[in-house]
Amino acid sequence: MLCAICVNFDVRKLLLTAAAQPPKGFNDPTAPDTLECLRPAVPRFFEHHPNLLSLRSAADKCDLCASIWQAYASNTHPWELVQEELLKGISTKQIFVGTTAWDATLSGMPHISVIQEGEKGAIRTLALFEVCAQRCHEPADNSDLLARSIYSNSGSKGCLQLAAELLGNCINKHKSCSRQYPASSKLPTRIIDVEGTNPKLVDGGGKHETFAALSYCWGGDSEFILTGASEQLFRQGRPLSNFPATIRDAISITKAPGIRYIWIDALCIIQDSREDWAQEASRMRDVYRGAVVTIAAACAAKTTEGIFRERAVSTHPECWLNWKNGDSNPPKVFLRLGSELWDERMHQSVLNTRGWVLQETLLAPRTLWFGQQQICLECPKGSVDETGRTIRIVEIYRSKEFIQLVRREIIPGWRRQLIDLLREMHIPLAMKIPSLSLPTIIHARDLETIRHRAISWKPFTLQGYFKPPANIFGFSHFDFWLKIIENYSSRQLSQATDVLTALSGLAREFHQATGDMYVAGLWKRDIIQGLTWSRFPVRKKLPDGRVDNEPTLSNQYLAPSWSWASILGKKVLFMAETQFDHVKQFAEVLDIDIQTATHDPFGAVKGGSLTLRAPFLELDSKDLFIPPDSSSRYPKLSQFIFDVLKSGGGSEYGQKHRGYAEQKFAILKLVYWRRTLSSTERACFLILESVQDSNDWRRIESLNLTSKETVLWDSKEVLEKLAILDEIKHALKRHVVRII
After folding, report:
1. How many CB atoms lie within 10 A of CB 92?
2. Burial grade of 48 (CB within 10 A; 0-12, 13-18, 19 or more)
3. pLDDT above 70 (res 440)
4. Taking the domains of the chain in order of start, what are their residue ranges?
5. Which regions of 171-318 does DSSP assign to beta strands (E)?
6. Is the pLDDT confidence value at 676 over 80?
7. Burial of 731 (0-12, 13-18, 19+ CB in 10 A)
8. 591 has which bridge partners?
9. Cα separation of 262 and 195, whole Å?
10. CB 437 within 8 A of CB 539
11. Closest CA to 341 of 368, 371, 305
12. CA angle (61 as vertex; 59, 63 as ends), nearest 5
């Protein structure tokens, strides 16, 4: 039922108009095969009610008006909906129905927008809708502009058939996916054979077959697992009804497209054998990379919850509209709130807070997500959800597209030599000198010619600044790695000692692409920037309501003190060199030594050292948490360190400090940055403490001094930091320091 105004609304014409908009596109350097086609919005396509009062009055007798009003009212404070407020300001303005700007490569289809325009260009969005077709009742024309209805249950026959269809489309129609990721690969050491009614554990035996993998949360369930005692029982086969709900549903999903095998860590790794766990953990890269699809149980927090869900019925009325294509009996389409199926619960689920899952997701060529509201298949081409919406992940480092790029960009030996040569000459890689263009660098073969030409290069100028395209992987892999670490470090691990193990598969991918040496979560070529990390502390609420940073003394060895993996905490942040146009590294790497805990060079470590030659200053403080007295040789620096540790820092210090009589503290100057246009300068130092009965040092905190030469509103702070730098400028002396 539509009112006299809405009956004239032609939703088909609106979508065709939006699709016909000329794109404002550009080539995405991180995805060279993709031309982003951002089509402009069509905001005022249809003149709707003259104001909100008119809309509210019509809502009782019109489905479209009711949908718009309820969408607006549900996201608005009640006091804004009273009569007197509806007679004020933007509420009295004309209402329009149109579309938002949209990009076919990012969102797949335009969204209907209902807006009001206020003074000075202000726009208020009342509602956003998707235009949907009932599944199996789609219009014969232009149905690619329409979303689809979802199934009432994610375990229904129709939904599982759709999952199999989405997987088959990627395997059979995406040439780049199928070329790089064959449907069959070498089976893992052990795997679950789901054929028949009693799934059983079998040996891979080096055979090449098609198999799936499962990504899920154990949720504390430690009973239904593979152990030395239960192995024979699993090999004999167990009734499907005996399996926990999440694993049981995963087996049903595996069977839907005709896949015979599935890898599940709890059932394929002997959980009470440290040796087997270490060996199989080092092979997880091959498992997730080799699986034709990884099933992600994003709606289950534990194995007893299961994957399949009844879908909640919408609380908003369905608004049916005619698809006016000229037929005497036009097909029907309906409007669905745009936010209704944005499955935020899937992205914010317990599964996506787990550290192991980041690697499992990125390494898998395809992930079939089962969320609370719908399913979604993600592959290097993007993702397609149950409604038919296609989405590309904008942050390239979080996508399968990125990992596919990594695997393509195996750097030739000559380019690795070139990278090392540029670093040897202290030439920033994120910089282009006018006399030598980037294409020349990439295609050059004669390194001696480059060396001679480099002699004539002029000092850095702003005109010479250049940030290399992200797809030239040899020149930007470290930036991507830092982004991955920032994401990974905000996730949780059941065992803190897994901090490096849960990244080992990704580290191996990067190593194969770059040839660089992996050192406890960082890379040798970019180790100086890697040392600039800081980590948010774990905050604990005390009984009196105060919040404590909980600088717990850790008895578990996680990594060398100079690695971000050496402490417990929240998100890790690094200083991004690309934000500055001048970078000077003061520290010179003389040696790096890593002792791995297992045979896996990318897994856990049991020791390590980093030897640097850098500007160094021994402090006269005996305890950094004690305010400096008047006799201090460096009172400004000592006071600044004390203030930093007491004002929210100190988590790293609290976990690493190992005090003893006659202990010494020192600072080491690591790197300096400058941003010319804003006159911003930043210097990064490491705070070190001596190690008892040795000449080694331990990193216990990072220290950043940032200043602007001309900032009036914080001149006192600027002067203080400049004074600190001036106080220690002549005291810093180059020294060889070994940090463990």
Report:
1. 15
2. buried
3. no
4. 6-133, 157-310+344-406, 409-475, 526-739
5. 185-186, 190-193, 200-203, 208-209, 211-215, 261-263, 293-297
6. no
7. middle
8. 611
9. 10
10. no
11. 371
12. 65
Q: How does pLDDT run across 463-502, given as a tens digit for each residue? A: 222 233 333 333 457 888 998 999 999 999 988 999 999 9
Q: Could you give the CA distance from residue 33 to residue 27 in angstroms, rounded to a whole number?
A: 8
Question: Would you call 684 exposed, middle or buried from its count of C-beta atoms within 10 A (0-12, 13-18, 19+)?
Answer: buried
Query: β-strands 293-297, 211-215: how paired?
Result: parallel
Cβ contacts of 246 within 8 Å, gap of 6 or more: 216, 297, 300, 302, 303, 304, 305, 306, 307
Determine how many CB atoms are found less than 10 A away from the CB of residue 438. Answer: 15
CA distance 485 to 496: 15
Residue 60, exposed/middle/buried by CB under 10 A (0-12, 13-18, 19+)? Answer: exposed
Give residue 459's pLDDT band: very low, low, confident or very high (50, 70, 90).
very low
Measuring CA to CA, which residue among 56, 49, 41 is closest to residue 9? 49
List, in order, residues 6 or more apart from 186 with CB less than 8 Å away: 204, 206, 207, 208, 286, 290
Residues 6+ apart with CB under 8 A from 221: 244, 302, 303, 304
Say if residue 382's pLDDT is above 80: yes
The three-state secondary structure class of 206 is coil
Instruction: Tell me the three-class secondary structure of 572-600, residue by residue.
Output: EECCCHHHCCEEEECCEEEEEEEEECCCC
Q: What kind and span of H or E run contains 523? A: strand 522-523
DSSP structure string for 680-711: EEEEEEEEEEE-TTSS-EEEEEEEEEEEESS-
Structure tokens at 253: 């999903």
What's the 3-state SS for 109-159? CCCEEEEEECHHHCEEEEEEEEEEECCCCCCCCCHHHCEECCCCECCCHHH
Give dist(CA 326, CA 515) in Å, integer: 62
Q: Taking CA 334 as the corner, what is the angle to CA 330 and CA 335, rounded to the nearest 5 degrees?
A: 140
Give yes or no for a contact between 255 and 194, defined as CB atoms under 8 angstroms apart: yes
Those residues whose C-beta lies under 8 Å from the C-beta of residue 450, and which sit 6 or more positions away, are 418, 421, 436, 441, 444
For 309, half-sphere exposure in the C-beta direction (CA atoms, 13 angstrom radius) is 18
Q: Where are the alpha helices (DSSP H) in 464-547?
A: 477-489, 504-514, 527-530
> Distance of alpha carbon 134 from its chain centroid, rounded?
34
Separation between Cα atoms, residue 429 and residue 514, nearest integer Å: 14
**Cβ proximity of 570 and 555 under 8 Å:** no
CB 561 within 8 A of CB 609: no
Cβ contacts of 543 within 8 Å, gap of 6 or more: none
Q: Please name every residue paired with 99 in a beta bridge, in sequence order, or none if there are none.
A: 42, 112
Tell me what pLDDT residue 21 has.
86
What is the average pLDDT across 572-596?
86
Where would I find the H helices in 620-680? 635-646, 651-656
Cα separation, 71 vs 128, whole angstroms: 8
Q: Which residues of 130-155 are buried (b: 16+ CB within 10 A; e: fewer)?
A: bbbbeeeebbeeeeebbbbbbbeebb
Bigger pLDDT: 384 vs 315:
384
User: What b/e string do you get for 103-120 counting C-beta neighbours within 10 Å, with b at 16 or more?
Assistant: bbbbebbbbbbbbbbeee
Sign of the torsion angle spanned by Cα atoms 191, 194, 199, 200:
negative
In the chain, what is the greatest distance between 2 CA atoms, to the nearest angstrom? 95
Provide the whole-model pTM.
0.81
Which amino acid does the sequence have at 204?
G
**504 touches 282 (CB < 8 A):** yes
DSSP per residue, 549-566: -------S--S-TTSGGG
- CB count within 10 Å of CB 204 equals 18
User: Counting every residue, how long is the chain?
Assistant: 740
**17 neighbors 45 (Cβ within 8 angstroms):** yes
